[in-house]
Amino acid sequence: MVRRFTEKKLVIASHNKGKIVEIAELLAPFGIDVVSAGDLGLPEPEETENSFIGNAQLKALAAARAAKLPALADDSGMAVWALDGAPGIYSARWAGPDRDFDMAMEKVNTAVGNHPDRRADFVCALSLAWPDDHVENFEGRIEGDLVWPKRGKNGFGYDPMFQPRGYDQTFGEMPAAKKHEMSHRARAFDQLVKACFA
């Protein structure tokens, strides 16, 4: 039985400012008081699982237990077909300790090189956890292609090099509202909302 979210306050289990803003915007219609793990001074747990859902659940549970509040965690990344799904769950690590995504995009482009297959998927796993260890998990995915040179200053992470299939703009070129309508995170959120909030 899926658990409904009935509380008034929710922790976003992330220290990534771009991700926190995006998740807060998606939650805005529900009038929930949102606070980030960083605002609460919660440490970032080490991501030791081998899947997006595993890492999202690990982060959500850690924040829910520490804050004694429900927590929502996201684990997302870009899976490049020519790189056997890399950077995948290591997408943030490719950006190094300073989260330098310009460098990470250069790395991805260099690794792909002249490979004819430019397909990539953006994947987002969302885990909603309660302090009693109950968890609901959801996963969204969007297919696209890598572009180089990167284009656009919007979004964050790998957005400027990812062009969703059927569109002529990268996520980095799209206004936030357009990206929110169809991104991997939006698709995972749609499932979460229908199951736990609607």
UniProtKB/TrEMBL annotation:
InterPro entries: dITP/XTP_pyrophosphatase (IPR020922), ITPase-like_fam (IPR029001), RdgB/HAM1 (IPR002637). The keyword Metal-binding applies. It holds the Pfam family Ham1p_like. Its EC number is 3.6.1.66. CDD domains: HAM1. Keywords: Hydrolase, Magnesium, Metal-binding, Nucleotide metabolism, Nucleotide-binding. Belongs to the HAM1 NTPase family. Pyrophosphatase that catalyzes the hydrolysis of nucleoside triphosphates to their monophosphate derivatives, with a high preference for the non-canonical purine nucleotides XTP (xanthosine triphosphate), dITP (deoxyinosine triphosphate) and ITP. Seems to function as a house-cleaning enzyme that removes non-canonical purine nucleotides from the nucleotide pool, thus preventing their incorporation into DNA/RNA and avoiding chromosomal lesions. This is dITP/XTP pyrophosphatase. The lineage of its organism: Bacteria, Pseudomonadati, Pseudomonadota, Alphaproteobacteria, Rhodospirillales.
